[in-house]
């Protein structure tokens, strides 16, 4: 029996051929043949990996962790310091961009709420307590909101 079949048996454990057939959409008789040593189809192997959370690289080659959930930890342990720092820097940049988009969204929503409530925004041509009515120059509601949008002052650390 091949190393692939040995790993397949470890991954499957004591599950029945009927259960594996349902899990992989494979006829139980085909599952039985695969488990006895016949060459399994790629679709069956892919379905086993999906259904049981198995790392396909481990199943096919024996490399890496058996469970897909352990892949990140394994990759981190195998990485060099420079690779980790580069990945960390990229993630910090991605999170910074998301926070900036979220801040812009919050500012837009606050402005819309002020305008809708008649409170005004205090700048951008709208005086506090007065809402500029859309006129010929503000017929576009998006432009009207964009015109009323104000920036928050940057937060000071501390």
Explain how this protein is built:
The structure is a single chain. By secondary structure, this protein is an all-alpha fold. The protein has 2 domains: 3-74, 434 Repressor (Amino-terminal Domain); 80-148, no CATH class. It is built from 8 helices and no strands. Helix 2 (17-24) packs across helix 3. Mean pLDDT is 82; it is low at 125-132.
Question: Could you provide a short overview of the structure?
Answer:
By secondary structure, the chain is an all-alpha fold.
| Helix and strand sequence | HHHHHHHH
End-to-end gap = 66 Å
- Radius of gyration from the CA trace? 29 Å
* Shape assignment: elongated
List keywords for this structure.
158 residues; mainly alpha; elongated
What does the secondary structure layout of this molecule look like, with pairings?
Elements: H1 3-12, H2 17-24, H3 28-35, H4 42-52, H5 56-61, H6 71-78, H7 81-117, H8 141-148
Helix pairs in contact: 2-3
């Amino acid at each position: 029996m091949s190393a692939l079949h040995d790993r397949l048996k470890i991954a499957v454990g004591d599950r029945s051929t009927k259960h594996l057939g349902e899990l992989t959409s494979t006829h139980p008789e085909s599952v039985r043949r695969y488990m006895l040593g016949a060459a399994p189809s790629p679709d069956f192997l892919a379905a086993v990996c999906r259904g049981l959370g198995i790392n396909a690289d481990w199943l096919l080659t024996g490399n890496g962790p058996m469970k897909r959930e352990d892949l990140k930890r394994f990759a981190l342990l195998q990485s060099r310091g420079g690779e980790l720092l580069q990945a960390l820097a990229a993630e910090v940049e991605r999170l910074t961009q998301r926070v900036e988009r979220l801040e812009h969204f919050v500012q837009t929503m606050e402005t819309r709420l002020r305008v809708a409530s008649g409170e005004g925004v205090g700048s951008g041509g709208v005086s506090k307590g007065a809402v500029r009515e859309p006129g010929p120059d503000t017929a576009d509601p998006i432009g009207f909101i964009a015109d009323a949008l104000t920036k928050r002052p940057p937060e000071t650390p501390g």
